[in-house]
Amino acid sequence: MRRDLDIRPLRTLVTIVDTGGFRRASEVLNISQPAVSQHISKLNALIGEPVFRETGQSLRLSATGEELLRFARQLVRTNDELVLRLSAAKRGHRLTLGVCDTLVGVIPNLITALQEHVPLPRMSVQTGPGGHLSDQLAEGAVDMVVRLGAPEGPADEVIGAVECTWFGHAGLLTETNPVPLAVFAEREAPLRRLAEDTLTERRITWHVAYEGVGVEDVVTVTRSGFGISLLFSAAGHRWHLPVLPPDLLPEPVRSLPVVLTAGSRLADDLTGTVRAAVHRVMSDYTTQEAPARGGVTLQG
């Protein structure tokens, strides 16, 4: 007897593995957690044993579950490619992604992940201040935005938080000279504002020694020993930056939420897969949860 596979449980399985849990998969797919569990139950029945050996904090696939995941990825990818090609042929669909200046370092990995779902000729990326990108999203010029800052509406999804750390060579800090900051050129950039506010609140004198275009620009100057920078903690491991010893500068009191917003112009059949790819890439840069925040709203 022939049995036809339902692509939805397979997509749910792939999303659970890529995002690291049932709850995050339900958020990415925009379905309830009971629906996620129901999809996995269907797959359990299909293979005749549990897909996962362990769930909860630690997700571990069974041997058959790992084999199922390999085929699920292939089938979901083939499904999405076929739908995309057919819909693009009719509507000339494109994906335009907006990434705030502070997070430009994630763009290469984002492009690589998105190529699984969107052909390069139909993909474009814009960078700029978060507020500007949000305006572009509202106008339909951008399909999806990844930015730092507090959520501002129901379409904004907090996908994690950037924890901040001071980087640079300790020899640059003396009792007599101001702290030489390497910052983003955009004055409203969240990490620049956070660095300046943190030092000012503690009455520590500072001056801007270098203004960079993006994070990798600031990283290069910091590594060279010219300035002190406040960057997301993952930057140290990713770019081999020297971390300042504790207590040399005040610890930042805020972490910055990372917000993902999809516009109404983005095709429904593409939104879920693009969102999952963004989740997967950004998880390397963020903590799992955004902390509660008060005070000044930072947007980047």
TrEMBL record:
Q: Name one GO molecular function term.
A: DNA binding
Name the PROSITE patterns for this protein: HTH_LYSR (PS50931)
Q: Which Gene3D superfamilies match?
A: Periplasmic binding protein-like II, Winged helix-like DNA-binding domain superfamily/Winged helix DNA-binding domain
Q: Which keywords accompany this UniProt record? A: DNA-binding, Transcription, Transcription regulation
The coiled-coil regions, if any, are none
Q: Classify the source by domain of life.
A: Bacteria
Look up keyword Oxidoreductase and say if it applies: no
Q: Where is the HTH lysR-type domain?
A: 5-62
Q: Please report which protein family the annotation says this sequence is part of.
A: Belongs to the LysR transcriptional regulatory family.
Q: What is this protein called?
A: DNA-binding transcriptional LysR family regulator
